[in-house]
Design goal:
The protein is built from 14 helices and 15 strands. The strands form 4 sheets. Strands 1-2-3-4-5-9-12-13 form an 8-stranded parallel beta barrel, surrounded by 5 helices. Strand 12, helix 13 and strand 13 form a beta-alpha-beta unit.
Length: about 450
């Protein structure tokens, strides 16, 4: 339990000190930062499956290719000093598996030394490190073997995790084994819009099972190796969670579908890591006692709400229709902006009794005033969840800088900091300054709450 979850008397004192708005104050020791992922910002990750896929015509919007991306492979010190100057005390980043293990079984010491310098730079700036081991991309050699469809991927991921823990463990404060496992499984193996472009419900949930098993093995490997060296690692996942509401609230079918998809997409993976029971649709139910209790925290990625309904003509998507609510504010990708959703999600994970980090939350927009509204409205809901007993310990905005947004290419602008892709110049947006002020005071400025 951290300082944000104090007793009633302490909350009353803080309420009086802040003029009656206890939810406006964030706890001491709260982690404030932003997030990035290797393929989206480093540039020239030429040895993974996404790089290969981008070269195919029509795969990425506007024919974009990640190319140099934000050139953060070379400019990381500049970016981290900028984050430090903005008051960030934590940063989430991912390692590129294809750099560390460019060929099966051969680990590149040069890549390890690079990431040691990256993490060491953050530590020297007083910035805590959250490291993600898998953020959607796979080494080319792994993809050629069938990737996450193959059962041997579990052992291969464990071996990679062990190597990273040994080489970099002294520089990591928080570990995320896998980013958005259900997003990866559905985008790549159900909807087929990401490599390897499979379209099968069964394959998607087979991949989800392998991801769960791989997490469990990595969790135990990291704990075993680092505890032997006197460290106390904290390991979890970053789970994308969406609010699923019925398209027609009066329809019992739509209500049932909304409840079912919430359970499958939002909770089935977390349940597996809690109980050890992997109960994914259409694949064999399996219990692994060693998988139970393999989360030291829950990472929540939250962006939006989706409306769902029953559609008898869509067996390929489990008879589910999805839509975005009409006549609501949206971001540039057409996603509904629904701040209350982050409160609802946080309250829903309270049942697991674990610390929570907001590992991603952000908006694709070219209107920075909209980003400011998004930031304040969502942090207001996070603060409300803390006041209502959720053990939220940190917030990582997505993203520190504009970046390559997967299939959408470079058009979406998620960054607190603008990137001119022609010159690689960084321009700090006003929203980044607002975020800096929130970090400095630990509260939300009154003028932005109106």
């Amino acid at each position: 339990m951290h300082e944000g979850l104090e007793g009633k008397g302490a909350r009353e004192e803080r309420r009086n000190a802040m003029g009656g708005d206890v939810w406006r104050v964030f706890p001491e020791g709260f982690l404030w930062g932003a997030a990035t992922s290797s393929h989206q910002v480093e540039g020239n990750n030429v040895n993974n499956d996404w790089w290969d896929w981008e070269q195919l015509p029509g795969k990425v919007a506007h024919g974009d290719k990640s190319g140099d991306a934000c050139d953060q492979y070379n400019r990381y010190r500049q970016d981290f000093e900028m984050a430090r100057d903005l008051g960030h005390n934590a940063h989430r980043l991912s390692l590129e598996w294809s750099r560390i293990e460019p060929e099966e079984g051969r680990f590149d010491q040069g890549a390890i030394e690079h990431y040691r310098d990256v993490l060491g730079t953050l530590k020297s700036l007083g910035i805590a490190t959250m490291v993600t081991l898998h953020h959607f991309t796979n080494p080319r050699w792994l993809a050629a073997k069938g990737g996450w469809l193959r059962p041997e991927v579990v052992g291969l991921f464990e071996r990679y995790s062990r190597h990273v823990a040994v080489e970099l463990g002294d520089l990591v404060d928080l570990w995320v084994t896998i980013n958005e496992p259900m997003v990866y499984a559905t985008q790549s193996f159900l909807f087929g819009v990401w490599p390897p472009e499979k379209k099968s419900v069964v394959l998607a949930f087979r991949v989800a099972k392998n991801l769960a098993k791989a997490h469990g093995r990595a969790y135990h490997a990291i704990h075993e190796l680092l505890e032997a060296r006197g460290m106390r690692p904290l390991v979890g996942i970053a789970k994308n969670m969406m609010v699923f509401d019925p398209k027609r609230p009066e329809s019992r079918w739509d209500r049932a579908v909304a409840s079912k998809i919430d359970r499958i997409f939002n909770k089935s993976f977390l349940d597996a890591l809690t109980t050890g029971v992997m109960a994914f649709p259409l694949v064999r139910r399996e219990t692994d006692p060693k998988l139970a209790g393999t989360q030291d925290f829950i990472g929540v990625n939250y962006y939006s709400r989706t409306l769902v309904g029953f559609n008898i003509r869509k067996p390929q998507t489990l008879f589910i229709d999805m839509a975005v609510k009409e006549d609501v504010e949206k971001n540039n990708l057409g996603w509904e902006i629904y701040p209350k959703g982050i409160y609802r999600i946080l309250m829903s994970v309270k049942e697991y009794g674990l610390p929570v980090y907001i590992t991603e939350n952000g908006i694709a927009t070219t209107d920075d005033k909209q980003r400011e509204r998004f930031l304040v409205s969502h942090l207001r809901e996070v603060a409300s969840a803390i006041a209502d007993g959720v053990d939220v310990r940190g917030y990582f905005h997505w993203s520190l800088v504009d970046n390559f947004e997967w299939k959408e290419g470079f058009t979406p602008r998620f960054g607190l900091v603008e990137v001119d892709y022609k010159t690689q110049a960084r321009i700090v947006r006003p929203s980044a300054r607002l975020y800096s002020e929130i970090i400095r005071t630990g509260s939300l400025p009154q003028e932005h709450l109106q």
